[in-house]
């Protein structure tokens, strides 16, 4: 389109689409024409016209026709320094504000023409370099300037070689054959480790850590005291760590052993707990004894049971003393402890130098066991200690018995709270032994009176053998001693010169004398003369007499009833009596061991309705009472004391005064 | 021989007991009177059972832990008893009849 241009000074930065020569041609006072097409046309006509006529004004055909007024109109044009082609509304995204923001300052420079020159400033690095090079070339050669500092750059010149006489020679050193040496270390041993971390593991660990620290503290403190002790401790510690493997298991093994035994003897255990013989209802008064476990120990085969004692604290633990009654068959002896939980093997085994004749377990401190031996020694064992040896032994004591010790009994602690026990022996002395620090101190209580049959001059030589001893439950000072001659003496600890009372009990050896646990005046005795006699201490003759067909070796009161007692005889039978039910004959007479085995001892368990009997083969048999034998008397309203209910039937029986029954 | 070893021998000699296995802390049987293959078999299986039982007991009561397992089966009766890290397996024949 043709744009009318008025005559005016027009400057534009834009590169016009006009050829310079055309402009020049047109600028001769002729109207400036914008487009090329027009100009060409115009040019043809303009040049044609000009050639023909000179200054004739030619109007292109498509030029706007404007009026004079319009032509004279002044149009102002403003020159701006801004680039019309520069964008005016550039918007950029601003990450800071998260939105599009217009950019205010836009580059307004428009480059019309660019030409890179090859002029370098004199002072710049490159300029200096070039100048130096120039100088070198100008000077020619440059051999005389090796040490000129400024000319460093131009040293790498090609070597000038003599082209006639030049040999280039090269040599190469021997290249050693390359070798690969690889080294690999042995990989560290690996092990897979996995564990769980729970609260309880953490807790256990902390507890152990605490214990370890305490131990090390103790060791640390102990080290300052005694170096010798240290060495022994170290040995012990070493031994401990070596044995830790299996001995850690000791507890587990024990449990397993007991469990295995329980499972094997399961029926026995069930019977022990639950079996009640139903046929007792049909038997009237009679009862039976149910055999439970048998306890035997291989090494005790040749020995006979000489003493039995239940432990008061642990009702399933009992002690068996093994030795021999025969004078000619004296060997070693043993002290065994069995528990009902493990009938196949004893819990504790102690070997003694001579046969054990009697034993007693302390009532309160059930780890103290007093033992009387055939050679006259008394010894005290401590079950808590792991040693095989007794903690006290009267072997070295001057007051030891010269003959077999027949019975030992613990007493209450004396005024200095030392433990003490009393023993009676075949040398006729009743001696009290006190455990003072590390030794046994003896005190003679009384000497058994010699019978009249012995002539006076031999009275000191031939003693009266005391065979049995028992202390009253309530009156601690009062005791009974049975002798070999069949007499029973009642004495008191406070009178050391003579006995209070003498009972002509039996014709032969009194094997056992025992106070009734409930009635304060009643005691029972048995002997080799086939008799079992019940006495009231106030009366010279027995209240009851029972004849069993053979020598009676032991008799015991039941702990739950004042009228029940049991006796064992040499024909292997156990006789159980209940005076409340039948005053004349036994409720049960049962053979419990095989023939030719003599029963020697009997003991009632303090809690359970079982008894243990020891025989001369070294076996101990446990038996359970059937219900008929276990009858407890009914509680009456008067006699309010705690054992009143148990006393009353016996009181009745005694008061009625049944005459002696033969 | 110390007490524990003697007791183990006694249990092994007890009539009715088929086998006794003692396993140490790493799960390796250190004593056994069964043949090797059976020993390993029993050990492996009972170790797992024991671990499981222990976890279970601790889960129920963190201060409690199982000390003895008694497994009664048709043919026999297996007792597993644990100490600190060790455990012990005793295999016993079931009694005939009851």
Task: Break the fold down into its secondary structure elements and pairings.
The complex is a heterodimer of chains A (662) and B (98).
Chain A: H1 20-26, H2 36-52, H3 68-72, E1 91-94, E2 99-102, H4 125-139, H5 199-223, H6 227-247, H7 250-264, H8 266-274, E3 289-295, E4 304-310, E5 317-323, E6 333-339, E7 348-352, E8 356-361, E9 368-373, E10 378-382, E11 392-393, E12 405-410, E13 420-425, E14 429-436, E15 439-447, E16 466-471, E17 478-483, E18 487-492, E19 501-504, E20 510-515, E21 522-527, E22 531-536, E23 544-547, E24 552-557, E25 564-569, E26 573-578, E27 588-591, E28 599-604, E29 610-615, E30 620-625, H9 644-656
Antiparallel strand pairs in A: 1-2, 3-30, 4-5, 5-6, 6-7, 8-9, 9-10, 10-11, 12-13, 13-14, 14-15, 16-17, 17-18, 18-19, 20-21, 21-22, 22-23, 24-25, 25-26, 26-27, 28-29, 29-30
Helix pairs in contact in A: 7-8
Chain B: H1 3-13, E1 17-23, E2 29-32, H2 36-60, E3 68-72, E4 76-82, E5 87-93
Protein name (chain B): Roadblock/LAMTOR2 domain-containing protein
Organism (chain B): Onychostoma macrolepis
InterPro entries (chain B): Roadblock/LAMTOR2_dom
Fill in the keyword field for this structure.
heterodimer, A: 662 residues, alpha+beta, 4-stranded antiparallel sheet, 9 helices, 30 strands, 19% helix, elongated, disordered N terminus, disordered C terminus, B: 98 residues, Beta-Lactamase, 5-stranded antiparallel sheet, 2 helices
> Looking at the structure, what is the overall shape of chain A?
elongated
Work out the number of β strands of chain B: 5
Proportion of helical residues of chain B: 25-40%
Largest interface: A-B, 28 and 37 residues
Task: Please give a structural write-up.
Chain B: It comes from Onychostoma macrolepis. Chain B: Residues 4-92 form the Roadblock/LAMTOR2 domain. Chain B: Belongs to the GAMAD family. Chain B: This is Roadblock/LAMTOR2 domain-containing protein. Chain B: Pfam families: Robl_LC7. The complex is a heterodimer of chains A (662) and B (98). Chain A has a four-stranded antiparallel β-sheet, with helices on one face. A four-stranded antiparallel β-sheet of chain A has the order 4-5-6-7, with no helix packed on it. In chain A, strands 8-9-10-11 form a four-stranded antiparallel β-sheet, with no helix packed on it. Chain A is 19% helix and 26% strand. In chain A, helix 7 (250-264) packs across helix 8 (266-274). With 662 residues, chain A is an alpha+beta fold. The termini of chain A are far apart. Chain A is elongated. Residues 1-46, 145-154, 228-243, 637-645 and 657-662 of chain A have low confidence and may be disordered. In chain A, 32% of the residues are buried. Chain B has 98 residues and is an alpha+beta fold. Chain B has one domain (3-96): Dynein light chain 2a, cytoplasmic (Beta-Lactamase), CATH 3.30.450. Chain B has helices at 3-13, 36-60, and strands spanning 17-23, 29-32, 68-72, 76-82, 87-93. Chain B has a five-stranded antiparallel β-sheet with strand order 2-1-5-4-3. Chain B is globular. The A-B interface holds A 196, 198-200, 203, 243, 245-257, 259-261, 263-264, 266-267, 344-345 and B 2-5, 7-8, 10-11, 14-17, 20, 22, 24, 30, 55, 58, 62-63, 67-68, 70, 77, 79, 81-88, 90, 92, 95, 98.
């Amino acid at each position: 389109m043709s744009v009318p241009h008025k005559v005016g000074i027009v400057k534009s930065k834009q590169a016009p689409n006009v050829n310079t020569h055309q402009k020049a041609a047109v600028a001769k006072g002729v109207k400036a024409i914008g487009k090329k097409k027009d100009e060409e046309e115009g040019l043809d006509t303009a040049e044609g016209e000009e050639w023909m006529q000179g200054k004739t004004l030619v109007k292109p055909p498509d030029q706007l026709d404007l009026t004079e007024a319009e032509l004279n109109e002044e149009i102002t044009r403003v020159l701006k320094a801004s680039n019309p082609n520069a964008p005016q509304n550039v918007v950029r995204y601003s990450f800071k504000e998260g939105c599009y923001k217009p950019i205010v300052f836009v580059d307004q420079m428009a480059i019309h023409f660019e030409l890179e020159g090859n002029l370098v400033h004199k002072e710049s690095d490159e300029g200096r370099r070039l100048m130096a090079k120039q100088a070198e070339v100008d000077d020619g050669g440059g051999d005389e300037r090796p040490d000129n500092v400024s000319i460093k750059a131009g040293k790498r010149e090609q070597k000038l070689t003599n082209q006639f006489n030049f040999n280039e020679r090269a040599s190469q050193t021997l290249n050693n054959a390359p070798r690969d040496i690889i080294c690999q270390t042995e990989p560290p041993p690996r092990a897979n480790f996995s564990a769980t971390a729970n609260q309880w593991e953490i807790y256990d660990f902390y507890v152990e850590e605490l214990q370890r620290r305490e131990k090390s503290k103790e060791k640390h403190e102990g080290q300052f005291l005694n170096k010798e002790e240290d060495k022994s401790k170290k040995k012990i510690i070493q031994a401990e760590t070596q044995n830790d493997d299996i001995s850690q298991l000791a507890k587990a093994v024990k449990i397993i052993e007991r469990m295995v035994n329980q499972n094997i003897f399961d029926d026995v255990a069930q019977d022990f707990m639950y079996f009640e013989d139903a046929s007792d209802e049909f038997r009237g008064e009679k009862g039976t004894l149910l055999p439970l476990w048998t306890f035997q120990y291989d090494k005790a085969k040749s020995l006979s049971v000489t003493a039995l004692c239940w432990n008061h604290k642990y009702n399933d633990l009992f002690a068996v003393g093994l030795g021999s009654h025969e004078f000619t068959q004296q060997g070693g002896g043993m002290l065994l402890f069995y528990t009902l939980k493990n009938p196949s093997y004893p819990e504790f085994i102690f070997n003694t130098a001579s046969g054990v004749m009697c034993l007693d377990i302390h009532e309160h401190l059930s780890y103290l066991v007093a033992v009387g031996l055939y050679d006259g020694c008394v010894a005290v064992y401590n079950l808590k200690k792991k040693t095989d040896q007794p903690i006290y032994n009267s072997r070295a004591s001057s007051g030891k018995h010269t003959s077999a010790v027949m019975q030992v009994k613990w007493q209450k602690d004396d005024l200095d709270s030392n433990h003490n026990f009393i023993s009676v022996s075949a040398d006729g002395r009743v001696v009290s032994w006190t455990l003072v620090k590390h030794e046994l101190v003896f005190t003679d209580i009384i000497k058994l009176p010699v019978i009249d049959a012995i002539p006076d001059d031999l009275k000191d030589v031939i003693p009266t053998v005391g065979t049995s001893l028992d202390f009253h439950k309530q009156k601690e000072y009062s005791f009974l001693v049975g002798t070999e001659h069949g007499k029973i003496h009642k004495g008191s600890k406070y009178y050391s010169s003579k006995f209070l009372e003498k009972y002509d009990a039996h014709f032969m050896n009194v094997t056992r004398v025992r106070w009734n646990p409930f009635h304060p005046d009643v005691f029972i005795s048995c002997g080799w003369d086939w008799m079992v006699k019940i006495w009231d201490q106030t009366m010279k003759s027995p209240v009851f007499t029972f004849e069993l067909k053979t020598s009676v070796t032991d008799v015991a009161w039941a702990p739950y009833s004042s009228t029940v007692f049991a006796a064992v005889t040499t024909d292997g039978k156990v006789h159980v009596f209940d005076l409340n039910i039948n005053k004349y004959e036994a409720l049960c007479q049962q053979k419990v061991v095989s023939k030719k085995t003599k029963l020697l001892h009997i003991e009632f368990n303090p809690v359970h309705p079982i008894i243990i009997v020891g025989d001369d083969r070294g076996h101990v048999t446990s038996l359970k009472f059937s219900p008929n034998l276990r009858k407890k008397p009914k509680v009456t309203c008067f006699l309010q004391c705690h054992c009143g209910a148990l006393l009353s039937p016996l009181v009745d029986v005694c008061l009625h005064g049944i005459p002696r029954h033969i | 021989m110390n007490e524990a070893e003697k007791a183990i021998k006694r249990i092994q000699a007890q009539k009715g007991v088929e086998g006794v296995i003692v396993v140490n802390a790493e799960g390796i049987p250190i004593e056994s009177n069964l043949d090797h293959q059976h020993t390993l078999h029993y050990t492996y299986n009972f170790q797992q059972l024991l671990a499981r039982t222990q976890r279970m007991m601790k889960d129920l009561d963190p201060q409690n832990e199982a000390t003895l397992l008694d497994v009664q089966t048709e043919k026999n009766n297996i007792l597993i008893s644990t100490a600190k890290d060790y455990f012990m397996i005793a295999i016993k024949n079931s009694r005939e009849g009851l």
